[in-house]
Amino acid sequence: MTSMDSIRREYERYPPNGFRRFTRWFTKRIPTRLYARALLIIIIPMVLLQSVIAFVFMERHWQTVTQRLSMAVTRDIAAIIDVLDTFPQDAAYNDIIRIARERLELNIAIEPPGDLPAPRPKPFFSILDQILSEEITRQIRLPFWIDTVGNSNIVEVRIKLDDKILRVFAKRSQAYASNTHIFLLWMVGTSLVLLVIAILFLRGQIRPILKLTQAAESFGKGQRMPDDFRPRGADEVRRAGVAFIKMRERIERQLEQRTAMLSGVSHDLRTILTRFRLQLALVSDGPELDDLNKDIDDMQSMLDSYLSFARGEAEEDVGTVSLKSVVEKVAADGRLRGATVTVSVEGADEINVRPNAFARLLTNLVSNACRHGDEVSIHAQSRGKWLTIAIDDDGPGIPEEAREDVFRPFYRLDAARNQDESGTGLGLAIVRDIARSHGGDVTLSDSEKGGLRATIRLPV
Fold it and tell me: Which coarse location class applies to the principal site listed for this UniProt protein (predicted)?
């Protein structure tokens, strides 16, 4: 049972509740990169904290101060109205206008009776308009008209009295806490400064992790590690970098030891096989000797194939090659085998691979297709960071249940597609080994031609 099957069965046994569904929904919508998530960890609490502070400030301080200022201005207007009603003998109202201007800092005008202007559109958000209107309604209790939108520095109030209209012009700062924006600007400004510092700090902390990731990816693809890589950053990141370097050194030492051992084994076995050939050459000819020579040739071929498979192409450096040239060369070799080979290449022509290993990868697959089919098509597509090559043939194909087994070393089918007199059962194993050493893979599926499709997918 695969891991996906076990996860699916576990999911069916214990379906997710509301919290799990919300968690999965939220996880799919947040950034996946560490840098973005770290920024969110800093930004979200900062925004929440500032929102709470701004709400409390506006609810408690700003509204309270504005209400008290508006209450004071309304009391002054109410006092002027009381004076006008108490001393009606001053027809010109010069003294009252002077007292309002000098003592109350209010400019007033007494106009003949008439109708008040139509109400002006209310602003979308104006705490002054709301509070000042409530205070005039509560203290004066007379028809009024108010304008807090026109001149940004002046607030105009018109009160309809019995035989006249009182116009009052007051400074906005007298009825409104006008320095609130300074608090908001300071709060937003300091937050931006802190955010810039956090971004610079996070970039310095994330960069070593990205370098370690690049080094691990390069090593996994069989490429050289970046020359400027060395453990940096926080202690945990440094320890991870040091552990990676030590792991890489151990793996390289094991590869070197294996290569040296295989070279020794190859030399010894080749010496024995050469001695067999010399001994058989001294014996007279016969059908038995022909069979023995054929066995020795098979042993030599199997030995060379196994050593090539075990040694791999890890020692080869990555280079830039022309995709079209490599595919055309492999296709030409396939045509020499008597098959009809068609080629199509799309996307970028230059790719970064290990040249010899990549050529051998294509050669093995195309030669297998040409050996078992008459028509072979090669479709290569290089887009973005991935190269996809599909090789189709019209041969007998491979049963679906055996498509993973054929990648095992020395595995051979009974009515095998890869079964021939010179086959060793290592061709597809070498193919997958080369593909995975590049960081990709090779898969088999049904072809539209009726045979087998081999799909190569490599990062380039």
Answer: membrane
Residue 381 β-bridge partners: 346, 388
pTM of the entire structure?
Answer: 0.52
- Quote the mean pLDDT of the chain: 79
- Phi then psi for 427, rounded to 5 degrees? -60, -55
pLDDT value at residue 421: 45
d(CA 177, CA 123): 17
**Distance between CA atoms of 118 and 241, rounded to whole angstroms?**
75
Distance CA 260, CA 257 (A): 5
Q: Rounded CA gap, 236 and 36, in Å?
A: 20
In Å, how far are 259, 319, 391, 431 from 352, measured between CA atoms? Answer: 25, 5, 20, 18
Task: Convert the pLDDT of each residue in 257-305 to its tens digit.
Answer: 776 776 677 767 777 777 777 777 777 666 667 777 777 777 777 777 6
For residue 133, the surrounding DSSP H or E stretch is: helix 127-139
The band of 9, judged by pLDDT with boundaries at 50, 70 and 90, is low
Quick check: helix, strand or coil at residue 420? coil
Q: Running DSSP on this structure, what letter comes out for residue 163? A: S
